[in-house]
Amino acid sequence: MHLSSYPVLGLLLPIACVATLYERAEQLPASTSYDFVIVGAGAGGTVLANRLSEDPGTTVLLLEAGPSNLGVTDAIIPMLPQGLAVTTYDWNYTTTPQPGFAGRSINYPRGRLLGGSTSTKSQTPWLTLVQATKNGTAMQDSRNEKFVPSADGHKTTGQYDPSLHSTTGMVSISLPGYPHPFDSRVIETTKELSKDWPFNLDMNSGHMLGIGWPQQSIDTSSRSSGATAYLAPPIHGEEEPARPGKPAFRSVEYTTADIPTGGTSTGPRTVVSAKKEVILAAGAIGTAQILLLSGIGPQKQLSALGIKTILNNPSVGANLTDHPLLSNLFYVNSNDTFDSITMNGTLAAEDIAIWNATHQGPLVDSPLAHLGWARVPSNPYGPDTTAGPTTPHYEILFANGFLSTTTPLPSSGHFMTIVTALTAPAARGSLTLKTSNPFEQPNINPNMLGTDYDLFLMESAVKSVQKIAAANAWKGYIIKPFEDLAAATTPAKLKAYIQAKAATIFHPACTAAMSPKGASWGVTDPDGIVKHISGLRIIDASILPVIPSAHPQAVIYFLGERGAALVKQKYGIN
Ligand SMILES: Cc1cc2nc3c(=O)[nH]c(=O)nc-3n(C[C@H](O)[C@H](O)[C@H](O)COP(=O)(O)OP(=O)(O)OC[C@H]3O[C@@H](n4cnc5c(N)ncnc54)[C@H](O)[C@@H]3O)c2cc1C
Ligand SMILES: *[C@@H]1O[C@H](CO)[C@@H](O)[C@H](O)[C@H]1NC(C)=O
Ligand SMILES: *[C@@H]1O[C@H](CO)[C@@H](O)[C@H](O)[C@H]1NC(C)=O
Ligand SMILES: *[C@@H]1O[C@H](CO)[C@@H](O)[C@H](O)[C@H]1NC(C)=O
Ligand SMILES: *[C@@H]1O[C@H](CO)[C@@H](O)[C@H](O)[C@H]1NC(C)=O
Ligand SMILES: *[C@@H]1O[C@H](CO)[C@@H](O)[C@H](O)[C@H]1NC(C)=O
Ligand SMILES: *[C@@H]1O[C@H](CO)[C@@H](O)[C@H](O)[C@H]1NC(C)=O
Q1: H/E element holding 354?
Q2: Measured between alpha carbons, how far is 334 from 553 in angstroms, rounded to an integer?
Q3: Average pLDDT of 456-463?
Q4: Helix, strand, or coil here: 399?
């Protein structure tokens, strides 16, 4: 398979249709035709590229907009000083003003390098939470998961259920490898508040609710990403006729783009063709944008921008959904927090040197120490959004330091963060094109906290965190809440605090939803094939019809595995 890891931006070309092309051809081999052309090397694309190229007779081109992950320290060390730097490794997106956030726009990170968002330095860790199906069936995939020891080699008995996990898959998963001063207090909380927050030995058992130890995609001490897991091992047919009446999309054009976004390109343009299929895996933002630019989407929107509609489908870009997050910050009575690292460049450099020399120390972990999942007992706002009584409405994440994208890091002090994030929001937003320039970011409107129900869920989550902070288990440790949380003493102030400080946990999905075959809505069939189009499939977060009430990374890897199996089956590939 061929891998292009220099900046490209893809556009689909309908067969027999001339379009504007942007390209940088010289680095790719002369061949302009492959069995499969995959756009986007994130969670979905890396799995597909790996699995489809298992057959030596099958040619695959994987196009990625960002650079290689190799040697990118930010993508390798699980915990680095917080703050997602806007670099060539990120798309630097900004949302439209969010009414649920009192009109604020927020920064909207998306990975732009091999591995996509699985490679980016993240504020939250990489989890393998997999329960996402309607009937509670765990979507654990033994081809995906490889459980490995923790960095410090500690005994993990009682911290997970080994019988539920595979040790032979591709993505390495481990429990934390560096202890936190409050670990025993978290466990104590599960006893003291056992009704709200029971201890959960393993959230991937199909029973998600409660607090437990996080399982993260960390290969003992380094981030395990789609790129390290599915592309790292050396990467090394017949044409399906277009069905009559269906437009066929089997070509992709690409070029060198200005970095990160907003420019134009004068570079040479390349068109590559797929003998079998083009597979979009550019993520919930990128895939919908490419479809719209290629004339697949709501006709009114496309016409207004001078884009010729090939397929009028109002579902493209509709229903963008994400998980809103809020960082609840507390002063603590400890000197052993990661604030010592984030506030002190000298110590950070020392810890990086330790990681570099020994693969030990505080940087082996993400900032996440523990996590928990819970439901609200009832809600006054209408139908429940969860899949059933064992599915959470929200989650909490304990971090041993000051972790926020909306409140600036103080210059001194020691903190704990208990993040609250909604996992079953009702609000749905949209993705639309701003211009017909493929280098311009689209209008990204996840409609965060866009319903009273969502706000109610977030208020309930914060109240639960306030209850935890007041529990005996935290006496002598938590000193007091930080500024705006401290001020959130009335319902109005609590609402103001949430609207002023909430952000995203980076899980956009649902912009090219799958729906049953023959349904009047939706973008793909259940196998990812784009409805009413020939030669085009989508395998990434955009095809989820509903946002999972869990962290999505493992779900997208699973989609990749399933998608690859379906493609192989269709074309008789081994
Ligand atoms: C900062 C951050 C933290 C996260 N933390 C967690 C977590 O702790 N746990 C968890 O489960 N999930 C987490 N996620 C979410 C998870 O990473 C995503 O849900 C998952 O990676 C989505 O997979 P995907 O294949 O849909 O898209 P991505 O992994 O985003 O991959 C899309 C790829 O396509 C490329 N691309 C886009 N447009 C084009 C184009 N026009 N041409 C060429 N290439 C293009 C992108 O550069 C990218 O490499 C996090 C995400 C971010 C951004
Ligand atoms: C990121 O986007 C912001 C606002 O859209 C812009 O001001 C800034 O220059 C961009 N950063 C980079 C590195 O392009
Ligand atoms: C529920 O999961 C089981 C186990 O995978 C599966 O056999 C069954 O078809 C699923 N039921 C529904 C309604 O999806
Ligand atoms: C949005 O999703 C819902 C199902 O969750 C669906 O009924 C509706 O048709 C979708 N909207 C569009 C425009 O596709
Ligand atoms: C933290 O360090 C300061 C300064 O050295 C010291 O006064 C304080 O007692 C320490 N606190 C704890 C909880 O160890
Ligand atoms: C920063 O870290 C260095 C190295 O550990 C240490 O010597 C120094 O005292 C720290 N500075 C502060 C202000 O804590
Ligand atoms: C990491 O270790 C290598 C040698 O193993 C050394 O060359 C390099 O300078 C180190 N980098 C840092 C940041 O310590």
Answers
A1: helix 345-358
A2: 33
A3: 98
A4: strand
Distance 372 CA to ligand 5 centre (A): 30
507 noted as active-site residue: yes
* 3-state secondary structure labels for all residues of 502-551: CEECCCCECCCCECCCCCCCCCECCCCEECCCECEEECCHHHCCCCCCCC
Please give the average per-residue pLDDT across 25-54, as a whole number: 85
pLDDT tens digits, one per residue of 91-124: 889 999 999 999 999 999 999 888 999 887 553 4
Angle, CA of 284, 373 and 406, to the nearest 5°: 60
**Secondary structure of 439-494 as H, E, C letters:** CCCCEEECCCCCCHHHHHHHHHHHHHHHHHHCCHHHCCCEEEECHHHHHCCCHHHH
What's the rounded Cα separation, in Å, for the pair 230 and 227? Answer: 6
Q: Is 551 a catalytic residue?
A: yes
Distance 221 CA to ligand 2 centre (A): 32
- pLDDT of amino acid 17: 25
Interacting residues of 182 by C-beta distance below 8 A, sequence separation 6+: 332, 334, 369, 398, 400, 416, 474, 477
Question: Which of 236, 266, 200, 254 is closest to 37 using CA atoms?
Answer: 254
**Predicted TM-score (pTM) of this structure:** 0.91
* 473-504 pLDDT, tens digit each: 999 999 999 999 999 999 999 999 999 999 99
